[in-house]
Write a sequence for this structure.
């Protein structure tokens, strides 16, 4: 009977190396594109507010209750 364990081990290592190389290529290709750069036509991000962390925007949120109905 032929012992295939050495062949299976070599094939498994080769496939693992190819998979790692493919993932590194995909990450490198994604970083090379313009998906991670800001758009040149949008200078002011008005939809994100003016950058204050306190939350003092125009929208107000009501006070949260403990679930007890006060009516």
């Amino acid at each position: 009977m032929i012992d295939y364990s050495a062949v299976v081990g070599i094939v498994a290592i080769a496939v693992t190396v190819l998979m790692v190389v493919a993932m590194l290529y995909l990450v490198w290709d994604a970083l090379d594109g313009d998906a991670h750069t800001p758009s040149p036509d949008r200078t002011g991000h008005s939809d994100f507010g003016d950058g204050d962390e306190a939350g003092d925007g125009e929208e107000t949120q009501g006070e949260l209750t403990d679930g007890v109905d006060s009516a």
Notes: The mean pLDDT is 75. The radius of gyration is 28 Å. Residues 8-32 form one domain.
